[in-house]
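User: Okay, second chain of the day. Same drill as before: sequence in, structure tokens out.
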Amino acid sequence: MSNNSWMVSRPCERHEPHPCPKEDDCCCKKDECHCKKDECCCNKDMKRALKLLFDPSIKYDVDFDEFAFIGKNFLVGTSIDNNDDAKDNITEPDAKLCSLDPCHSDFINIEDNDVRYPIPAYDPEDKDFNINVRRASLCNLDAIVFEYDENPFEFEKKLKKLLDDKYPCCCPKNEECCCGEGIFRDIFTPYASHDIKLNFTAGWLACREARVLGRVGNILVLAHKEMSEKRIYFVCLESIGFYKVDIDC
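Assistant: Same drill. Structure tokens below.
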């Protein structure tokens, strides 16, 4: 497993802080909409979500060599799978998240030796186009999926605590202003005493019974665990196409 603990963000005067001050109980009373429907909605928030993975409480449990990047036209680090018994429709992630550059919100540094066509195939080689890639455009991503090595309950608990501490505000904004607000209003039940689970599609990704852990702006954070698979999903709310919400009783 590669933890890449050296991948910490370096100071950058152009780095933009999250608009929600940590000390506010509910910053959305004062927060102005930072995205328009004709702009890239998820790039900055996706980067903020990824930065959580370098927090000392969880970074040693994240396998940075097991990432999947779900692009709008191609996949990197995974393929579409036909296994009807699985919780999602992708194969085991195998791309590498290398680093985040705080001076740039438009891309992240990754590593993989091919991109993959988003079509099922009996022969895995039929899905691949051999092209070395080292960066991923955040505006082109519908979702990022990764695996971790910690006990599922403990890891999800620690990640949820980070989300609650750093991004506690779930008050909806004007859905005419920001991307994905209407979907989030429908998914999020603030007074639910049990887990919220979601069946959803986001671009080429499809997943069933994913547990909603929280939100980083326009990024919905979900998890599922099954046998040896323990996956976290960072999903652009604007990319969610079809979905069903279940609340455990």
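The first strand starts at residue 62 and ends at 71.

User: Thanks, on to the next one.
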